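Quick one: co-fold with magnesium ion.
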Amino acid sequence: MKAMATGLSVCAPRRQAGKPLTVSFVAPCYNEEANVEAFIDAILGLWDRMKTDIPSLGSCEIVLVDDGSSDPTWDLIRSASRRRPEVVGVRLSRNFGHQAALLSGLMTARGDAVISLDADLQDDIEIIPAMLRAYVSGDEIVFGVRSDRSSDTVFKRMSAHVYYRLLGALGVDSVYNHADFRLMSRKALDALMQYGERNLYLRGLIKSFGFRTSTVEYERKRRERGQSAYTLHKMIVLGLNGITAFSVRPLRLFFYLGMTISTFSLGYIIYSVVMAFMGVTISGWASLIVSIYLIGGIQIIGIGILGEYIGRIYIETKGRPHYLVEEIARNEEMDR
Ligand code: UDP
Ligand code: MG
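Sure, here it is.
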């Protein structure tokens, strides 16, 4: 992305005091035909309610990114943007994946505060007033944290738990049970624009900024319409991105493992030689086979891990854009 490549060296100041607060809602949509209308209605309904509670609120926009859907998602977004001035549609040229689609939405958003969430309404929008209050009181980033994952499958819950533990063990600073439901201030967004990396793991990157943050808990709901597009493969890729983007400890671990195995082998060599001098033959077909397979397996895993890092270096050096925008649908008559 151009803005990412250029980068900004100075973060924008916080919104001028007294000026109405503009808010952008950003949702990536991949085959969300069943959710687009419901999402817009839910957000606009919430907005109306919030306006009475939070007097500093000005206008809002809803940025919906069509991540190369094969269903009529884009037609729905485009027609909604014609009917409602708040709706801004971004159509990517193909499916670039959730993180890239989200990034494109964040880069398109113009609000003082930008809230990212899933289009399927699994993220509980009722905590958004609390997020905005945290922003008004000075937090630059507010993370939505899942207090309850009972709507997820047992597999998803277990793998998420193991993964967060693993991240912690590898020294990656992450927010436990936070996906991409979060509020970011303009200052945090400007900071994000300074990062030019291709390997996108937004939740980790944003946590690393060091700005004032807070968390708001919510219960993740079940998906009511449409289907999850997050396949196991996509989850693994995202997980690997999270690790490789922030930690080189897996490489170091293999160094230590190699050292340990070599030390043991040296001991065993000395033992074998001494035994040979003493005329004792060590029978060893089983131990030989086991150690060949064991060391072979460890080596291949090590090469695989090395490959994950090298592959990412390769991708980074090409500096290709994260996504390409095919079309933007925005009602220019919108009063901002
Ligand atoms: N999504 C996307 N591109 C993709 C996959 C998903 O933009 O390639 C969007 C999807 O429309 C939804 C959000 O990312 O708004 C989360 O996806 P999903 O609900 O499938 O994931 P889950 O909630 O099952 O983890
Ligand atoms: Mg979902």
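If it helps, Residues 27-30, 32, 67, 95, 97-98, 101, 118-120, 122, 228-230 surround uridine-5'-diphosphate (ligand 1) (CB under 6 Å).
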